[in-house]
Design goal:
The chain has about 325 residues and is of the alpha/beta class. The protein contains 13 helices and eleven strands. It is globular.
Amino acid sequence: MTDPSRRHWLGHAAGLALAAAAGPGAAQSSWPTRPVRLVVPYAAGGGPDLQARKLAPELARALGVNVIVENKVGAGGIVAGEVVATLPPDGYTVLIGSSTHLINKAMQPAVKFDPLRSFDAITQVSSGGAVLVVPADAPYRSARELAAAVKAKPSAFNYGSGGVGTAAHLAGGTLCKVLELDAVHVPFRGSVEIVPGLLGGQVQFAFPIASTAMPAIVQGKVRPLAVTTAQRIRPLPEVPTLRELFGSELMVQESWSGFWTPAGTPREVIDRLAATTRAAHESPVVREFYEQSGTDVVLSASPAAFAEFMRAEVEKWTRIVKLVGATPS
């Protein structure tokens, strides 16, 4: 692990090398000469906001200018996406984009941004899945047992989520559609209400994201039956994936975040942002934050690789939204 001063030097050197490789004009670029804004589409205090505030000091050290975290809240990330899409592509505004933006666009085509055309991809930074859980006193010891019980009693089971189009809703809806189960979706006002809903009997199963589920699992309040990730997750190595159990690729659903800039940002700026973001994620403080939240650090090999990943994700999430029949409430 490099010390902070060495990470700073490496990020600075990487930026200079990339700029020189891009051509004489790029080598003379003075970017950045003023603070860079890191726009968080969600409220202060939530997971994405805390993530941004852990990263900002490390990015600032690598770039040599302040990095200011700005919360632009509204419509599940739509407001931030629409605003940033209209800003100058000068490298001074970076949006924390996510799979949620892709889902919102699939649900609401009239949204005034296109994840693939309105932004330039920099790098993915994180990924995490949801956990299928039931109350700890429920009789089901496996996802197959739960599925069999739901199938035997159509419309007798409810599954909870933090709202239409959320990870918990789409995971539950996909499970029901693929396995031909008849269960009722109960959208709560937010994801924090999912576990209380389980414990209070309003819903019988749910798919909270790992960072929401883990405290209740550790406390013995809920029982994990499966995860939506492609591979088993570190905190729950004994819990199988839904793909292992049922063989469906559509059940592999991971919520991810990454950095985007307005489309048309100079290539040397994108490359330097990508290099400094990778360097920032070597910080022990940043790594510890991700580990404690149950989220994996996932960094793209290049901006082009992130853009290719996003194209595949747009196709996948559009298919899932149509399968589940998710529409704005």
